[in-house]
């Protein structure tokens, strides 16, 4: 209990007082004392260092620039930010407005750019790698099955040799007047060259692999270049939007002037016109409230719909990564379990010798003119293999769950930023008001006069006399 009392009565008031003095020194056009000047310089140094660090990480890790270029650009940006923040009051206000502007659509675009870069650098190459694994499996199947099929022609050679040997024995048993023994054999000759076939298959697969790698490299370069251009455009547009907001705030009294602020309530109370705020138009919004107007809700719904379309595209890419991995895993696993296909060649041969067949009719079958020879029947076996154990096949790369988690976290932040966009714009107005108090007073006076005029006009219509009939 004593600890809570210490925090509530001593520590929290001191922190609040310190933050108020630091913000006063930061938002004033000119420091009023040496302490405010020192506080302003230290705050500008911290902000410049933070800007340089964020810029370096964004260029080196997200946009894939070199270390030297990223460090040099971050150092230059940090030094330039220090000078401009310390010496120029409007630029200091503009840079401060950039922080809540990151919660608007420009900040969402920057996060979407970073998300696309993560997908392009981590997920797309993994898809290409798994597809390459599938192509490697197909290459192994084609090469080994063709070699095994060509090697099976040896069976035909053995069968032809044995069959010709059997034919030779038949002719050897024939009399000289009806047949003559021959020394030759029937031979099945095949013209194949396994080395030439392997070279052609390897050459074709290497050509496909090189074309595939060229497409992969081209896609990576196009995505990287496009992401750099889009990210640079969004960054400059973010700065431009902050500058445009500040310019409109300073030059147009009607711009973003729809809030019931404390100054407006005090002015209405001094003039005893608090009823103007109670009966205010629906477009007026309490600056410290969380209620969203109808226009703000419609804008959130539209942005949610567009972001969901982009999310669906990202989910399709992530699903493709998982599908490619499971297909490659199934291909490698199933190929290793391919059965051996047996090939069987069976030859069955029967022969009879007939000597002067008309003699059998002359002597009424007294003796036979036929002679049966031993039958020839033989089978030849060989196995046809589709994949060899020597075929190099790498295991597919699984999807990186950390990358998927990072992409999901970025999308959660982007979805949250859609609802916080309205409050970010309110914070931009509050920052501008703290930097330019006199301009905020003029804006409050203008809004008050506008409310008084609308109230008088409304009462004039209601109290308009009617003519007697």
Automatic annotation (TrEMBL):
Compartments where located: Membrane
Topological type in the membrane: Multi-pass membrane protein
InterPro entries for this protein: CSR-E3_Ligase_Protein, DC_STAMP-like
Broad class of the protein's primary localization: membrane
Residues in Dendritic cell-specific transmembrane protein-like domain copies: 255-448
Alphabetical UniProt keywords: Membrane, Transmembrane, Transmembrane helix
Keyword Transmembrane helix found: yes
GO terms classed as biological process: cellular response to estrogen stimulus; cellular response to tumor necrosis factor; multinuclear osteoclast differentiation; positive regulation of macrophage fusion; positive regulation of osteoclast differentiation; positive regulation of osteoclast proliferation
Regions crossing the membrane: 37-59, 65-88, 109-128, 222-240, 297-319, 402-420
Membrane among keywords: yes
Any one cellular-component term (Gene Ontology): membrane
Domain of life, source organism: Eukaryota
PANTHER family according to UniProt: DENDRITIC CELL-SPECIFIC TRANSMEMBRANE PROTEIN (PTHR21041), OSTEOCLAST STIMULATORY TRANSMEMBRANE PROTEIN (PTHR21041:SF3)
Protein name in the entry: Osteoclast stimulatory transmembrane protein
Gene name of the encoded protein: OCSTAMP
């Amino acid at each position: 209990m004593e600890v809570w009392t210490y925090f509530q009565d001593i520590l929290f008031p001191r922190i609040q007082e310190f933050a108020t003095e630091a913000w006063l020194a930061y938002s004033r056009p000119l420091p009023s004392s040496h302490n405010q000047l020192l506080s302003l310089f230290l705050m500008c140094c911290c902000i410049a260092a933070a800007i340089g660090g964020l810029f370096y990480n964004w260029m080196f890790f997200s946009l894939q620039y070199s270390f030297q270029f990223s460090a040099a650009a971050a150092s230059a940006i940090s030094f330039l930010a220090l000078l401009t923040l310390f010496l120029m009051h409007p630029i200091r206000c503009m840079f401060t407005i950039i922080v809540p502007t990151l919660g608007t659509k420009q900040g969402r675009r920057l996060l979407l750019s970073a998300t696309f870069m993560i997908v392009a650098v981590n997920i797309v190459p993994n898809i290409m790698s798994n597809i390459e694994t599938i192509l490697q499996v197909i290459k192994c199947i084609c090469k080994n099955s063709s070699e095994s099929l060509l090697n099976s022609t040896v069976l035909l050679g053995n069968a032809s040799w044995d069959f010709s040997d059997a034919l030779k024995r038949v002719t050897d048993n024939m009399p000289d007047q009806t047949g003559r023994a021959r020394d030759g054999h029937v031979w099945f000759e095949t013209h194949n060259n396994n080395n030439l076939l392997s070279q052609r298959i390897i050459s074709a697969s290497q050509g496909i692999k090189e074309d595939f790698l060229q497409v992969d490299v081209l896609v990576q370069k196009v995505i990287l270049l496009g992401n750099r251009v889009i990210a640079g455009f969004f960054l400059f547009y973010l700065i431009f939007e902050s500058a445009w907001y500040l310019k409109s705030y300073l030059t147009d009294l009607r711009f973003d002037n729809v809030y019931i602020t404390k100054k407006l309530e005090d002015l209405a109370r001094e003039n005893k016109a608090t009823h103007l705020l109670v009966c205010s138009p629906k477009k007026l919004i309490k600056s410290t409230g969380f209620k969203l107007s109808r226009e703000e809700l419609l804008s959130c719904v539209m942005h949610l719909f567009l972001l969901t379309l982009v999310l669906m595209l990202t989910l399709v890419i992530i699903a493709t990564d998982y599908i490619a991995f499971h297909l490659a895993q199934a291909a490698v696993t199933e190929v290793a379990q391919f059965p051996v296909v047996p090939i069987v060649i069976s030859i069955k041969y029967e022969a009879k010798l007939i000597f002067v067949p008309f003699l059998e009719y002359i002597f009424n079958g007294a003796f036979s003119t036929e002679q049966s020879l031993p039958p020839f029947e033989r089978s030849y076996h060989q196995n046809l293999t589709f994949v060899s154990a020597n075929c190099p096949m790498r295991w597919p790369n699984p999807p990186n769950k950390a990358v998927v988690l990072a992409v999901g976290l970025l999308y959660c932040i982007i979805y949250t930023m859609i609802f916080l966009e309205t409050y970010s714009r309110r914070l931009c107005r509050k920052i501008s008001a703290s930097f330019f108090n006199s301009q905020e007073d003029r804006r409050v006076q203008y809004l008050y006069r506008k409310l008084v005029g609308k109230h008088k006009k409304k009462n004039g219509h209601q109290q308009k006399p009617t003519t007697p009939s």
